[in-house]
Amino acid sequence: MAGEADEEPQAPRRGVGSSGESSPESSNETSWDVAFELPGGIRRLRCGEGEYLWWAAAREGIALPSICLQGRCLECAGRLLHGRVDQSSADSYFPEDEAAGFVLLCRARPRSSLRIRTHQAAEMRAHRLAHGLPAPYA
Ligand code: FES
Fold it and tell me: What is the best residue among 52, 53, 64, 68 to mutate for testing ligand 1's pocket, by most ligand atoms within 8 Å of CB?
């Protein structure tokens, strides 16, 4: 019987054919399993490929930090521990950020299953300053 295991599946799922369970994504969209390491513990959710991670968290009642919601202020920063994201719609995101594993959750869309440590604004601002890059609110 195909039940939900506690482990992190590596394969994407499609929303089509889900039997009555509420689906975070539009019916045709691939979605991915996401584990957030929050200060209070780990929360898991599903996020569609077209959905930003910050909003997927909000939908599940997880209040992540934010100021701009445009990928500029760094307030929503997280650290990518596993997986890949599309950060192309962030207003301000540098190759150095990606190399260091920082992600801006308000403008990050999943491209694989993910594990992300949240609440990394101070760390990302320090990283930006160390590399001579913009660090709003630092
Ligand atoms: S809330 Fe400003 S970068 Fe995400």
Answer: 68
Flag whether 52 is in a domain: yes
In contact, 31 and 24? CB cutoff 8 Å: yes
Phi, psi for residue 97 in degrees, rounded to 5: -65, -45
State mean pLDDT over 49-54: 98
Q: At 69, which CATH number?
A: 3.10.20.30
Biggest CA–CA distance in the chain, Å, is 54
Tell me which of 67, 103, 125 to substitute to probe ligand 1's pocket, judged by most ligand atoms within 8 Å of the beta carbon. 67
Is pLDDT at 9 greater than 90 in this prediction?
no
* pTM (predicted TM-score): 0.85
Question: Taking CB atoms and a 6 Å cutoff, what residues make up the pocket around ligand 1?
Answer: 66-69, 71-76, 104, 106
2 versus 125: the higher-pLDDT residue is: 125
